[in-house]
Every structure is written in structure tokens, then in C-alpha cells.
Amino acid sequence: MEPGEILLSEEQIQKRVREMAYEIRRDFPDDLHLVAVLKGSFVFLSDLARNLDGRVSLDFMAVSSYGRGTTSGEVRLMKDLDAALDGRHVLIVEDIVDSGLTLARLQEILRARAPRTLRTACLLSKPARRRVPVPVDYVGFEIPDTFVVGYGLDYGDRYRNLRYIAAMRSCPGDL
Ligand code: 5GP
Fold first, then answer.
1. Which residues sit with their C-beta closer than 6 Å to ligand 1?
2. What domains can be seen in the chain, in order of their start residue?
3. CA atoms within 13 A on the CB side of 163
4. pLDDT by residue for the chain (175 residues), tens digit each?
């Protein structure tokens, strides 16, 4: 497998991230606490944060998902947040929503920590793959049901450094 067709160019992504930052700031003009989910969202977080004027703080968490074949949405916290969320305006920053199971569980975990508001920004969404309804307040792009890499997203921990988003395609030698 290797990156094939470019679905979203660097220019398209940068323009949309700027628009998203504008929308988010319009809705939350004061302190905003960004919670990024490692590793996939690190590039999106970095661009989004730099396009947000004013006061921003950020924190990281890492999760691993189990039960992809089920609707259990079992999510294990591999790295928890450093700071408490109570009373804060919290924005979850995610790379991609696929089945929605990971995000739904994450929202549940974070909501239990009593933030003043809890919103979610995702760069990519694959609506055709959704298995559970999950609210996403800011969506960068809706994409078809295809596996993508780049701009933080990996295949076997590679291709995160691509400045664009490409669909993976099989190549000679693949089984
Ligand atoms: P969900 O729980 O929504 O099914 O899974 C979300 C997670 O699956 C994402 O955070 C991401 O890690 C991974 N994922 C889903 N679709 C893709 C994709 O097309 N490319 C990559 N690299 N990861 C994906």
C-alpha cells in the first residue's frame, strides 16, 4: 500500500482550517482549552491553534480503541490529560471520525469531568461509516469511505508528515 490520489491539497486544508478557527473563535471568544487526541491530530491541532487569536491552552490525551467490529466502543486511556476540565470551555480536536465509536466514548469520558462547554472539531468525517450518532460541531471535510493518510494521519505510523491528504492504494507486491 502507498499514498495514491490526493483528496485534499495543502491549500484546501489550510484554507478550511483558517475558516474553522474563525468559526470557533466567533462562538468562543474567551479562553478556550483544546484537548487533542494523539497522535493523528497533532498537525491539525498545530495549525488550528496558530489560527486562533486570543487565549488558548492545550492538553493531550492518547487512546486506543478496541472492539472495532462491535458497537461497544471500548476506549482505553493510554495517556490522560494533565489538567482538570471543570468550568472550562473545552474543544476536542480530532483528526477523523469514522464509526464514531472512539469519539462518542471520549465525549462521555470528558463530559463526566464537568467542563462548562464541550465541543468537538474534526478535520475529516466519513459519514458513510458512522455506526453511532455523535455530535461534531466543526467538521473540516466530509470524505468518502476510503482509508486516507497525511496531515497527521498514518498507515503503520508512516505518512503523517505529508502536507496533503491522500487515499491509500494497493501497489504491486501487496498480498
Ligand atoms: P472510529 O472510532 O471513529 O471508528 O475511529 C476513529 C479513529 O480511527 C481515528 O481517530 C483514526 O485513528 C482511525 N481512522 C479512521 N479512519 C481512518 C483513515 O482513513 N485513515 C487513518 N490513518 N486513520 C483512520
1. 40, 65, 95-103, 147-149, 153-154
2. 11-143 (3.40.50.2020)
3. 5
4. 899 999 999 999 999 999 999 999 999 998 999 999 999 999 999 999 999 999 999 999 998 876 554 455 678 889 999 999 999 999 999 999 999 999 999 999 999 999 999 999 999 999 999 999 999 999 999 999 999 999 999 999 999 999 999 999 988 777 6
pTM, two decimal places: 0.94
Helices and strands in the chain: count of H runs, count of E runs? 3, 9
Exactly one of 30, 47, 53, 98 is catalytic; name it.
98
The CB density around residue 114, as the number of other CB atoms within 10 Å, is 12
Nearest Cα to 113, choosing from 93, 78, 83?
83
